[in-house]
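To whoever picks this up:

The parser on our side crashed when reading a file containing two proteins. I've narrowed it down to the boundary between the first structure block and the second sequence. Both blocks are reproduced below exactly, byte for byte. First block:
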Amino acid sequence: MRDRKIRAVLFDLGETLLDFGRLSTTRVFREGARVSHAYLRSLGQRVGPFEWYCWKNLFILRLRVLVSSITGNDFDAFALLQRIGRRRGIMLTDEQWREFAWRWYEPLGRIGRVQDDTPPALAALRDAGLKLGIVSNTFVNRESLERHMEQFRILEYFPVRVFSYEHSRRKPYPGIFERAAELIGEPFERIAFVGDRIDKDIRPALKFGMTAILKAAYTNAGKSPPRGAHRITHLGDLPALIEELNVAAVPCG
């Protein structure tokens, strides 16, 4: 009997590690536009009236999001905003551009939270010898996401971080899971995948032979996990579940 003990755990990001809940994307975008517009003005950049700046960027980003949802191809929102800014004559240093990206993300960052039991659970998994990584569908710049995770002191647990905008395609595209498995150094049958989306996380994990674990969130409220998947309410439940699964996976005799 082949050893199928779990040696690594991959996590989705939004509504799995970071909880944002239901929110008004237009309101969050508008606040990000306000903060980034003020930042550019503080640097003496000529950015024009706020409303023009806000709605032009909103139109372009929403168009790209629509295309992404249809094609399954992702995009780098920071690179897009940077190109728009440079065409308007905005000149910043690399450090200022990174801060500009953070100012766009900051209002969303103020909303996102980590449950109290998440850091201890991650520490327990790491101390048990498990490799940890992230696989996330996102067009948000890596540095902004990592800065947010660092605020909650969870970034250190994830040496492997795979973001869809860096790989062009979004989950459930097989390539993004294959890349994560390659980076974490384990075959699919020894990896658990924890996520909140049945369509993007759980069904693909089962298809590729991973142990699929659905974390309760508003995105799956009232839905049952597919056959063969497991369910947890909080990430604090995860170490005990994996220990139980690993005990059951040890070959007998």
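<<boundary where parser fails>>
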Amino acid sequence: MATLNRLGIIGLVHDHIWNYLAAAKDVQDLEIACVADSNPPLLRKIQKQLGLKGSALYADASTMLDNEKLDGCLVFTESCRHAEITELCARRGLHVMVEKPMALNVAHAERMMRAAKENNVRLMVNFPTQWNAELMGVFEAVQSGRIGRVWMTHFREGHKGPREIGCSEYFWKWLYDPEKNGGGALVDFCVYGASMTALLLGRPNRISAASGKLVKTDLAAEDNGVITAQYDEKRAIAVIEGTWTQVGQGNNMSIFGELGSIASTPFPPKEYYMSAASGGLEKILPAQLPPHEDKPIKYFAHRVRNDIPFHGLVNPENARIAQEMLEAGLRSIELRREVALG
């Protein structure tokens, strides 16, 4: 069994970090020992939340890694830093969990996977959707063949904008910066649909995309994006949408198979229903997530300690396909044509 008792956190500028800390306290023999971030207010916030000593707070990741004896790191930096930080950690033999999206681009994603392999450490890419029991119940139903061969999927994710929903300034500033985020709403939200599409259908053959500043014309990046993925051998199509301008509920999903269809309700509370050829509706029951694997840090610790492969949306291979779909979409927009994946 691998050792994973002392974790460090690198970066506090991805707001998802604050949703995960409470559950980490439930993991036996696991200590979040130190944190590195260049923003003093965020360091003070996490110091208070975790009860850390001042000596456990660092402005620089390399200094922290040189000074602390760790087993792994949780990375919540800007996407553009994921490759650099993963390499820093992997060279020191530290297991790594990064928050979605996997990286700035495919080249960075491949650097991360190479660093993990060459240094014999584990790499997990956290997608919050993996911990949604209702959604995982849908994937179990599809993967068990209940709606037959899937021929089309449609995933839409979004809201009225990072700043508008109350994300911290530390978060939304880099989300709106295409140099740090890799794009705008297309990257931020289409990555969810891309990762779920990859899980259900694998790697597509062709990608076409469109994006624009449809409402927030002052942004440096697109506020809406749509990706269409073609699967030639599987005779399937996926439509993936991301938005930063939708007022009200922005998330919905439809999966169409030869034996039935599954769709989400348009408004909260979110529920998923399967429609069979008979015309009847059946509510999809939530998946039973193991109590030691129902949150990201708990899952990360259990799988590393027991040498169990990461599965589903958090598997880096799946995340890499999603990254490739995003990059091909951005390329399609630039060229104004369909792009083939090699």
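After patching the parser it read the second block fine. The mean pLDDT is 96. Residues 210 and 334 are 9 Å apart (CA to CA).
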